[in-house]
C-alpha cells in the first residue's frame, strides 16, 4: 500500500535507533549472554540461584557431609573433546550387601534422653547424689488418673479461703533448713505438738525430764471444814517431776507430784467448851508418786513392775480425825506390783502380785502428850489378774479379778475390834477408742470384804470405775472419771468406808494461751455398820493464762460442801487462789 513520503522516513529512523545500542553491546562483549540472579543484596549479584549458598536457611553445617542431591545446581559444562566414552573400560559396580544406607543423619539421632529410640537402646540413668530421693516414673498406660482436686478432709469443715498467714510475706529459709539441697538426707518428721505452750523438757542421756513448780496464795473461808467456819489465808507449794525413757524396747516412767498447804491462822482448840474436832495447826502435805517399768522379753511377753508411794493426812471433816489434836498425823502407803503381760494373738493375759504397807505417825495432842496410831498400821498382800480380748481395733472387753489380805500390826484396835480382813472385787468392762474422739475405759462390778471380828459385818457394795475423754472439738475437751474404794476407819462398830467418787471436767481454749477449766465432783462415804452417810460436792473453776512455755498464771475459785446425816458434821467452804507455774 502506498504511504506518504514523510511517514516512511520516520519509521526507518525509529528502527535504526533501536538497532544501534544492540550493535554496540555485541561489539564490547564476546562471552555468551546469561540472566542476572536475584539476591538479598541487589548490588552484589551472584549466579546459580535466587539465594546464595551461604544465605540458605536449611544449609548443612560443616560437621555433616552434603549429599549430592543437596548440592546447588550448576550450569551445564560443554563436553570435553578428549573424553571419548568409547575408549573407557567397563568397571564393576560397588556392592551394597550388609551395608546400612545413611541419609545424612544416623538412626535415632533425635531421640535424646526422652524421645522414641528406633534402635531400642538402653537409656542411661541419671546420676543421683547420696541421699537424694529417686524421681518418680512418669505415668504410663494403665496408671490411674490423678485427682483433679485434693481430697476433702473429714476432720473439719471445708476451707472456704486460705488463712492470711499462707499468703503473708515470710522470711525466706536457707535451702539447708528448707530441705531443698540436692542430695540432702530427708529430715525425720517431727511429732505433732498438741500443746503449743506445754513444757519441752530436757534430755539426760536417753531420758526426757520435765519439771514444774506451782506457787499459789489465797484465802480459804473454812479450811478445817467446821460447822462454824473459821477462815485463814493459805499458800500452796506444789512441785512435780516427770521422767520418761526414750528406748526402742523396754520402758521406764517416773511420775512424782506433791504439794504442801500452809495456813497462817490456827484453829480454836475448843468449841463450846469441848475439844475441837479439828487440829489447831491444819497444815497438810500431799504426795503421790509411782515408777513404772516394763521389760520386753519378746514381742508377746513383757515383764511389768510398779513402785508407788502415797503420803497424806485424813481429810478435814472426816470422823477418823481425833478430837484435841495439835496437828494432823501423816500416813504413808507404799508398795509395789510385779507381774507379766502375755499376748496370744488377740487374747491378752495380765497378772501381778501386790504388796503394800500403810503406816501412821503418832498423834500430837493439844496438852503436849502423844497418842500412838500403831493399831492403824497394816500390811496388804494380794494379786490381780485381767483377761481381755480385742474384738476389733479400738474395742477391747476385759474381765478383772482381785483378791487381798490385810494384816494389822496390832490384832485389836483402840476400841477392841479385830480389824484383820480379806476381800477383793470382780468387774467387767471395756477399753475403747473411736476415731480419737472418744477414748477411755469403763467397768462395773462388785466388791466385798470380810473381817475376823464377828461384830463387824461384811463390807460390800456396787463398784464403778472408768475414765473417759471426749474431744468435742479442737478447742474443747470433756473428761469423766469415777472410782470406788474400800477404806479403813476407827469408828467403833463400823466395818469400813465404801467410797464412790464421780468427777466431770470441761476444758476450753479461748486461745491457745488462754484456757478455762470447769470441774464438778460428787462423792459418797458410806460408813457401814453405823448408818452414817456423807455426801461431798465440789464446784471448781480455773483460768490459765500462758505467757510462754515456761511461765503460766493461774486463778482458782472452788466451793466445797460436806452434807452429812449426822448432826453438826455438815460444812461449807470457799477457796480463792492466784498463783504462777514455772516449768521446763
TrEMBL record:
UniProt name for this protein: Outer membrane beta-barrel protein
Top-level division of the source organism's lineage: Bacteria
Asked if the record carries the keyword Signal, the reply is yes
Determine if Nucleotide-binding is one of this entry's keywords. no
The Pro residues compositionally biased stretches are 141-150
InterPro entries, per the entry: BBP2_2 (IPR018759)
Keyword list (alphabetical) reads: Signal
Record region (Disordered): 34-186
Signal peptide range equals 1-35
Identify the species of origin.
Answer: Bradyrhizobium guangzhouense
